[in-house]
Records
---
Amino acid sequence: MPEGHLIHRHAAQQHADLAGRTVRASGPQGRFDARPWDGRALTGVEAVGKHLLYHFENAPTVHVHLGMQGIFLRYDDPGTPPRAGTRLRLATHEVAYDLIAPSRCEALSPARLDALRHSLGPDPLRADASPDEAVTRLTAFRGPVGAAVLDQQVWSGIGNAWRAELLFLAGLHPNARALPPGTARRLWETAVTYLALGRDAGQVVSDPNAPSERWVYRRDHCRRCGTPVQTWQLAGRTAYSCPTDQPNHP
């Protein structure tokens, strides 16, 4: 599933291409009725965690969640026929985007949009995210930090790859509990810094000097010290940690 850095990257590119323009909206697959948005001005595209929101003049917000299978295809020639399975196409005279196989593509009323926003924790890539709220939500979580950071109601936008790498960078074992506020704030600041690197690069970046490498995620041995990486199931996903660099203190 695309994590928050890629969703923000999609939002930035699509906002640059589509915002302030009248768009032709269609649902080639037949599973999404795009007529309410066809011929409307798109006012903005924003990311909130792993969610994309498309705002239009005089039409409801469109909510997209890519899930595990969803992808976007971009065409410099908007006359290019849509690919099979395209749920939604948004096009101007200069560019077209096809949305294929999302888990969600739906209209949101103002009330449902507000409910979605309130259901999500602070997003490290949003300028309006409150560090104090991020610390409060993390320290209040009754469970291991490795479960907390995957809970989108605690922090939004972080998935399994970022969980592994951020906790390594912070020297925290995924099973650690009851984090002091200072530790929680340092982890948040690490997330803010590194997710921005990932957004700009289009991939998880946990070492700016080796942007395509990982410290522990999907590795047999820690890239820093060579210790065998430990793995287990935590919050429904495989957790990764280095017992040397991330000691598990009971």
---
Amino acid sequence: MEKREKYKHLLMFLASTLIMAIQIGVFAYMWYHHFEKNMLRHYWHRGNYVIIAQYALLLFLFYKLYGGFKVGYLRVFEVLYSQILSVLCVNFITYLQLALIGHWKFGRNINYLLQMTGINLIVVVIWVFFMRWVYARLYPPRQMLMIYGKYSPRDLEKKIGTREDKYNICEEIHLSAGEEAIKAKILQYHAVLLGDIPAHERNLFLKFCFENNIRCYSVPKISDIMLMHADHIHLFDTSLLLFRNRGLTAEQQFVKRLMDIVFSLFGLVLASPFMLVIAILVKAYDGGPVFYRQPRLTKDGKVFDVLKFRSMRVDSEKKGARLAMKNDDRVTPVGKVIRNIHFDELPQIFNILKGDMSLVGPRPERPEIAAQYKREIPEFDYRLKVKAGLTGFAQVYGKYNTTPYDKLKLDLTYIETYSFVLDIKLLFLTFKILFQKENTEGVEQWQVTAATKEKTGKEEEK
């Protein structure tokens, strides 16, 4: 397996090239035989090449953005979903482009678009399952050793267990077994998973794995995220890491605010019909208020009233504030639907226009729930260096029931790596997760505030 490992990137490159070549070929055929013939003006060779190149570039960008090439990295059905979504988006955009260039009426030549899309999807299904079969044959699950300390490894083990196609935890060993015994065990496995263990022991085993060319996985601590994204400066012959610790610069805040206003106005126009229908349905169900106002936290701990469509019963919090549980009976039938596709959050566009929120940023938490988190995780306020967001890093890569400690690490990753391009990327990825039900799962019954039963591990950073 180790010998085949060095050819993995070549295999993925060839597989990606294959699917791109086939899909571009399908479009080129439809262009020359159907679309081009229906244009007002016919193109010379270079013009044809430009149209095909535009399609290829657009397809490549969507595949890269949505993970359409990541066979073996993502679950097979997620790769399939990413491929299908990319093809649908690219074909729709291309059709609009050709309709504008050719002055077509809407619906003209739609049959050719449907034919092309049908062929594209057949190719996608065949390619995804064939490549998954090839990958599984060449790269079976890694046999892993898990090393853990005073904090239970069960939560991490459960998450790793959801990817049995990639990882197989064969054995667990506690730090109390001793350094030499653990090193001897490490040499018996293809990979090592370091749980939430003290930094000294983690660094010790990480270096040992490096010396022996053994792959090592480690869960980052909050300080690790800050280290990863610090600036490297070279003023003399010793490198320094610069931690700016300031949130966004004035220039970044200006660009972000301008983007919020422009995109929110555009989004409000697009979302208005949906918002009208949702408002009617919410009101018709039980006659209660359409909107739900609730105090939330944003930048620097400022409290504001977030605006959402009401998705729960009017008396849902008579016993106090708590997060939505799995199969929560407080959620109305209408609320269940709009929560699954995140449309209950559409009114937050008004919060963005007002300036209380941003399009992209950490999820706005309720003050009383944030206070509970902070008692367990003092660093939880670090995420308040930027405005709360309608979507964000934690919303895209996490789930509703992701633990607050993991959400904090995702939010810090966003703050430390912020850029205009990252915001655009997260907006596109938000569209991808709209129809993925797992992102809206409620918390378990024992999770009063979505915190895990285990300690967060923050004590081990000291």
